[in-house]
Design goal:
Blueprint (H helix, E strand, L loop, with lengths): L15 H17 L17 H15 L9 E2 L9 E8 L2 E7 L9 H9 L6 H6 E8 L5 E7 L4 H17 L3 E10 L13 E8 L3 E3 L6 E3 L9 H4 L1 H9 L5 E6 L5 H5 L6 E6 L2 H13 L5 E5 L4 H7 L8 E7 L10 H8 L3 E6 L2 H13 L2 E10 L8 E8 L27 H6 L16
Parallel strand pairs: 1-15, 5-6, 10-11, 10-13, 11-12, 13-14
Antiparallel strand pairs: 2-3, 2-4, 4-5, 6-7, 8-9, 14-16, 15-16
Helix pairs in contact: 10-11
């Protein structure tokens, strides 16, 4: 028969003095730890001013010993109607709160954004608000907007709430030219500028899939990337034109192109215009702009900016020409391994390098210097005033005079043929058989 090692006696209830002592200890413990119930202070991000950015760029140029003088800043005054806005769901404890996210500090929301924000407070949309994640307002440049509504429609009630909200937009919001329902898998917040890989499903409630880019006559897909503040961006192609002074026989290639806005705007100044991007919405936008181009000289390539692409593309005789490369690198991204050498092997006339990270910019300039390309101009771009973000457009040209101390390019060599030429190594020349023929000596005959 099993016998326990210890006697399991029932626990005696605590006496009244002991209970009072335990309660007092609990009260003292709560008084000694007030930080557990104290609210967490929200840390506000400090956005640098325009003067702070200027000083930062000047200090970087001195530290990195960037040659040449930094040119005048390219910017434009930001307007609310030409900027992308967002209504975002956030959580304060267990409560859901909708807030308006401005593209830059101290910007007042347009009237249409405030009107839709007030509509979301209506009680009959409470089920719709439970499923809603965010609303994007994509600016068309003329006071009108395309709406992207990210919502998880999982039942009849949420679908009915979405339909009710769309009916409100069509009846009361003439500024809204289109409305699309989007869902992301895996579930996450959609951002046109995000590099996170996710599958995005879109369905139009009304309106077109394309959005005009100001009064330029060029369009982009409503899901495609663009700066959130667009006033200066609309005039960027003109600034690039004044920086390079293109010849009608030149060719232009835009990498990380997005909607190919820059190449489409400059297509009339070049003999040929190409663009490359890896995203689906960029492909849709670019092919539409290529079909609508008056000069009919645009072509889009879908792929990644890799050394293999340059080696394959510029080895074809039909791709010979005087090329200008424009690389608009995404934030904090660097060129893949070997791309700088592949670009230099293609021997473009100019390289335009637009970068928003100064650390990356310093590394890329040094890599191109080692490939024989020197910095000619540095044009700072403040495309989104008030956001704290800026970029620099660097113009690099071949070092034909040997200023960098490398092998100078031959000035007499024709620049019409831009195909990469094989570099003859010493090992190959040593294997070649050298034929010599002795010069015969003619002696006068004795007569």
């Amino acid at each position: 028969m099993y016998k326990p090692k210890k006697n399991f006696a029932p626990r005696r209830p605590a006496s009244a003095p002991q209970r009072d002592f335990q309660r007092g200890a609990q009260r003292d413990f709560s008084r000694e730890n007030p930080r557990e119930k104290a609210p967490v202070e929200k840390v506000q991000k400090v956005i640098p001013t325009f003067e702070d950015i200027k000083q930062q760029l000047t200090a970087w140029a001195e530290t990195e010993k960037i040659p040449g003088k930094i040119q005048a800043w390219f910017t434009a005054e930001a307007s609310e109607e030409n900027s992308d806005w967002r209504i975002l769901k956030t959580y304060r404890g267990e409560h859901e709160v909708f807030t308006i996210e401005a593209p830059a500090a101290d910007m007042k929301a347009p009237e249409i954004v405030g009107r839709i924000m007030e509509q979301l407070k209506k009680e009959h949309l409470h089920i719709f608000k439970k499923a809603l994640r965010q609303i994007w307002f994509r600016a068309a440049g003329d006071g009108r907007f395309a709406l992207l509504i990210q919502i998880n429609l999982k039942g009849r009630n949420s679908a009915h709430g979405y339909k009710t909200f769309v009916d409100f937009l069509e009846r009361n919001c003439p500024e809204v030219i289109s409305c699309h329902h989007i869902q992301c898998m895996p579930d996450g917040l959609f951002d046109p500028a995000s590099a996170v890989a996710m599958r995005v499903e879109t369905k139009a409630a009304f309106g077109s899939d394309f959005l005009p880019i100001g009064d330029t006559g060029i369009q982009m897909h409503v899901m495609d990337w663009s700066p959130r503040i667009k006033d200066a961006w609309y005039d960027l192609p003109k600034r690039i034109e004044s920086a390079i002074h293109p010849h009608p026989e030149d060719c232009f290639f835009e990498f990380y192109s997005g909607s190919s806005f820059v190449s489409a705007a400059l297509s009339g100044l070049f003999k040929r215009v190409d663009s490359l991007d890896c995203r689906e919405f960029a492909m849709i936008s670019s092919r539409l702009n290529a079909r609508n181009a008056i000069s009919e000289n645009m072509k889009f390539h879908r792929g990644h900016v890799e050394a293999e692409f340059f080696n394959k593309f510029f080895n074809k005789p039909e791709n010979e020409g005087r090329w200008t490369f424009y690389l608009n690198l995404p934030t904090d991204e660097t060129l893949a391994t070997g791309v700088e050498q592949a670009i230099a092997s293609a021997r473009p006339e100019r390289i335009l390098l637009q970068i928003g990270n100064l650390e990356v910019a310093g590394k890329e300039i040094k890599r191109f210097r080692s490939e024989g390309y020197m910095l000619r101009k540095s044009i700072p771009l403040y495309l989104e005033p008030g956001s704290g973000k800026f970029e620099v457009l660097f113009l690099l040209v071949p070092d034909r005079a040997g200023i960098l101390g490398l092998n100078p390019a031959n000035k007499a060599r024709s620049r019409n043929v831009q195909r990469p030429q094989e570099r003859v190594s010493t090992a190959k020349t040593a294997q070649k058989t050298i034929f010599r023929q002795d010069v015969p000596t003619f002696k006068q005959r004795k007569g």
